[in-house]
Write a structure and sequence with these properties.
Blueprint (H helix, E strand, L loop, with lengths): L12 H22 L13 H21 L2 H6 L1 H18 L1 E3 L2 E7 L2 E3 L1 H17 L9 H20 L3 H5 L4 H7 L4 H20 L1 H18 L4 H26 L3 H11 L10 H12 L11 H4 L11 H33 L4 H25 L17 H18 L8
Antiparallel strand pairs: 1-2, 2-3
Helix pairs in contact: 1-2, 1-15, 2-17, 4-5, 4-6, 5-6, 5-16, 5-17, 8-16, 9-10, 9-11, 10-11, 13-15, 15-16, 16-17
């Protein structure tokens, strides 16, 4: 049997090396983000860098466990893992601890565990299990609905926990579905919905109503008249106008700080002391780094705590200030290389289950990188999404570790068919 030949047989060491390199670089920047003259010892477990060492060691233990388990275990027990994840999301609503307005944490001593982070790989496993069934086709309405339920159930529970940022990550699965045959029209519809949401907030629904009406009247007279085109134009117009009028409702139901952040991001408000403070200070930190940075442990924005959450959501600005453009480019290139490697490995699989799971891994990590870096440099609203393998936090590191090493183990079975 494969396990008798060693748990490391057929392991992709390139992915393992990238993981270790990113985790080490992440810890170095966490240390820099909270470093001061009173706390210099790397084993000071009262500080975040000390606690992160514990999370790193335990994450390596989790990675080994993921490699020890038989690859067929993940395919067979995907529904059980998904069910446990859903139960934990429900239990945390009743037994969890509220932190920063979000009741999504289980407190264990001085550490916290966030079930929403682990729901990502659980949903990914379940989606891969369902879609890898030979009788399943994404062209069927039933398949689309079931896929939507698998993805949507954890989203709803996480939204109830008031973890909007974490819930948004599940949208990334649309890229996985697209790879497996979902029509590109769904991507265009999603893009159109986001565009309408943003434009409505900027210009107001009355002006946007007039713009949409004018555009579709023009299109109606330009395109070739046939029943299908007319139906498409009418349906798109109705949906777009309905979207415009629903924006106010959706926006009004956001938390006040979330509305504030979106308004600041869109330029409707200028608030560099409150809602816009984090981003403003982050931009100052990154800009002050210049080409090669100020040097390790020499960042003034970092040392004097000008940027809130600098060890978690805004860890990228620590890289920018102390390592400069060279450092941020290196980090981004390593993360991009990681994504490319995951996609390459996914495409070489004989097993549909492993390929779908691999694309889910890439989609989740891509979404985190894009949003986290985007909000750090002011190109996305601040929604509290960690940078993979860099940001401080045990739940985040554990989740990404398990997510990645399950894929590494499944890849070790690439010459077999897993379902």
């Amino acid at each position: 049997m494969r396990e008798q030949q060693g748990i490391f047989k057929n392991i992709d060491w390139v992915l393992v090396a990238l993981y270790l390199l990113l985790v080490i670089m992440g810890w170095l920047n966490i240390y820099a983000s909270v470093y001061n003259d009173e706390h210099q010892s790397v084993t000071d477990f009262s500080q975040k860098y000390g606690k992160q060492l514990v999370w790193i060691v335990s994450s390596i233990g989790l990675a080994i466990i993921c490699l020890i388990l038989d690859g067929k275990f993940y395919a067979t027990f995907s529904p059980v893992i998904y069910a446990i994840s859903i139960v934990s999301l429900i239990l945390v609503l009743f037994l969890g601890t509220e932190i920063s307005g979000s009741k999504s944490w289980f407190r264990i001593g001085g550490f916290g565990i966030q079930p929403a982070e682990f729901a990502k790989f659980a949903a990914n496993l379940m989606l891969a299990k369902y879609l890898s069934n030979i009788s399943i086709k994404l062209t069927d309405l039933k398949t689309k609905l079931m896929s939507g339920i698998i993805i949507g159930l954890p989203i709803l529970l996480i939204l109830v926990e008031n973890e909007t940022g974490c819930a948004l990550v599940f949208i990334a699965f649309v890229f996985t579905l697209y790879r497996e045959g979902l029509s590109g029209n769904y991507l265009w519809v999603g893009f159109l919905a986001i565009l309408i949401f943003i434009l409505t907030l900027i210009f107001g629904k009355t002006i946007l109503f007039e713009i949409i009406g004018g555009v579709f009247i023009f299109i109606f007279f330009v395109v070739k008249k046939n029943k299908q085109n007319v139906l498409i134009i009418v349906a798109t117009t109705i949906v777009s106008l309905g979207g415009v009028y629903s924006v106010d409702y959706a926006f009004d139901h956001l938390e006040s700080h979330q509305k504030k952040r979106i308004n600041v991001f869109l330029g409707k408000e200028i608030d560099v002391k409150k809602a816009g403070y984090n981003v403003n200070q982050s931009l100052i930190a990154i800009g002050s780094g210049g080409l090669t940075g100020k040097g390790y442990l020499k960042g003034t924005q970092t040392k004097y705590d000008f940027v809130p959450e600098q060890s978690t959501d805004f860890i990228f600005c620590t890289v920018g200030e102390e390592w400069g453009f060279v450092g941020t480019s290196t980090v981004l290139l390593l993360l991009i290389f990681l994504l490319i490697r995951i996609i390459f490995i996914s495409e070489r699989q004989r097993s549909t289950f492993t390929r779908i799971y691999g694309y889910g891994v890439a989609s989740i990590i891509f979404f985190h990188i894009t949003v986290n870096v985007g909000m750090t440099i002011g190109l996305a609203p601040v929604i509290g999404i960690p940078l993979p393998f860099f940001s401080y936090g045990g739940s985040s590191l554990w989740s990404f570790t398990v997510l990645l090493f399950i894929f590494i183990k499944l890849d070790a079975y690439r010459l077999e068919i897993l379902r």
